[in-house]
Amino acid sequence: MNLHKNIRLLTWFNFFSDFRPYAPIAILYFSNITGSYAIGLSIFSIEMISASIGEVPTGIISDMVGRKQTIIFGAIMSVLSLIFYAIGAHFYILVLGSICAGIARSFFSGNNQAFLHDTLKEFNQEQAYAEHAGKVASMFQFALAISALIGGIVAYFSFSILMWISLIPQVICFLISIQMKEPKIHNMSDESNIYSHLNEAVQNFRNNSKLRTLSIASILEYGIGETIYQFNSAFVSLLWPVWAIGISKMLSNIFAATGMRLSGRITKKLGPIRSLIFSNMYSRCVGLFAVIFPSIFSPILISSTSFPFGISLVAKDTLFQKEFANKQRATMGSLNSLGGSLFFAFFAFLFGFIADKLAPNQALIIGELLLFIVLFLYYKLFASEKYG
To answer: CA 196 → CA 57, 141, 193, distances in Å?
Structure first.
């Protein structure tokens, strides 16, 4: 197997996987078909629930069947998802698309990072994981930024054409996935009892205090941080015209992609945990300033926090891969993702309730303050273990 070929294929797979021109106007398309914004939003909820349910089973499939095969399964589900979305016509057709999208998300979660790690391990290049992970992950953000601009233009003429165009990148993903090579270092588990396999993965969390602390911090950061990211548009709309909200999102994607591209060098120089701490310090201070003192510059300041986010995402994944057990690597990654998804579902509802009672910037202030708990946990991990 050629190391660089596998990584190159994964890089382009990530790009086309998130090259979704329909994403910026998805709620408009869904609500237009269902006749309701509330029902249209439920499509996103169903996708998240579907992904949460599939997290652990797909992680086990990855460890027991193989990384490449799991990527192929996910690519097939992505294609089916876009076909159902493009057909549209009825709420239940959209539901089918949403379920497929959630299953695809769960197939990729944990598995794709394990695929990269195992590929590098086969060639004794594990120390280069952060550098490669950053470059590979940055393609998600570049794809989102570019496709957002294309989607807005095509949607002006036809939602239907836009959805069918969005199917093409997912077909390309499937074609890329079948060209990948299974890392030889990954020995498919001979454990026929999936409950024993799952129990062993859970025990690894229980017995590893560093992994446990890192996982709790990650779950809190995802649940609170993702809620804030999704809600930021409500705050930005008070400061910028509606047509400019997409620009703030595009800037966030570009900043995040840049951070991911540079994350390998930064984590190599500072270490993963120091990179996490410094990145979170910048994001918390700048994010808090932007919402406490709202101005026309606040959206730009908020977008700039995506740069350290890109760095912290790769640094955190590097730490996880060091602590995950080889035989349960994808399963453990899926368990952590499951925790983040469930906490997000809970916190998003709570945050929405708070936002209904307060002004958008006041709700965001509370969210930013809560994220200091995550910073404390990262510092505690560093101080107690001198880790990274």
So the answer is: 13, 37, 5
For 180: left if phi > 0, alpha if psi spans -120 to 50, otherwise beta; the answer is: beta
What CATH architecture is 9-188? Up-down Bundle (1.20)
Rg of the chain (C-alpha set): 20
The domain segmentation of the chain, as residue ranges, is 9-188, 190-388
Q: How far apart are CA 115 and CA 124, in angstroms?
A: 14
Residue 123 CB contacts under 8 Å (≥ 6 apart), including other chains: 3
Cα–Cα distances in angstroms (integers) from residue 28 to residues 31, 39, 232, 270, 314, in the given order: 5, 11, 18, 44, 33
CA distance 1 to 62: 19
Task: Give the pLDDT confidence score for residue 342 in this predicted structure.
Answer: 80
**Contact present, 227 and 363 (Cβ < 8 Å):** no
Residue 135's pLDDT is 74
110: left (phi over 0), alpha (psi -120 to 50) or beta: left
Classify domain 190-388 at the CATH class level.
mainly alpha
**Residue ranges of the chain whose pLDDT lies below 70:** 1-3, 24-25, 27, 36-41, 130, 152, 185-198, 200-202, 230, 233, 242-243, 245-246, 325-331, 384-388
Q: Do domains 9-188 and 190-388 have the same CATH topology?
A: yes
pLDDT of residue 385: 59
Under 8 Å between Cβ of 151 and 267: no
* Token reading at 379: 């510092």
Interior CA angle at 367 toward 366 and 372, to 5°?
95
Structure confidence at residue 168 (pLDDT): 95
160-208 pLDDT per residue, tens: 888 999 999 999 999 999 998 888 765 554 445 556 656 766 677 777 7
- Rounded to 10 deg, the angle between the 194-207 and 329-357 helix axes is 70
Pick from 162, 154, 188: which is nearest to 65 by CA?
188
Supply the pTM of this predicted model: 0.68
Alpha-carbon distance of 66 to 60, in angstroms, equals 10
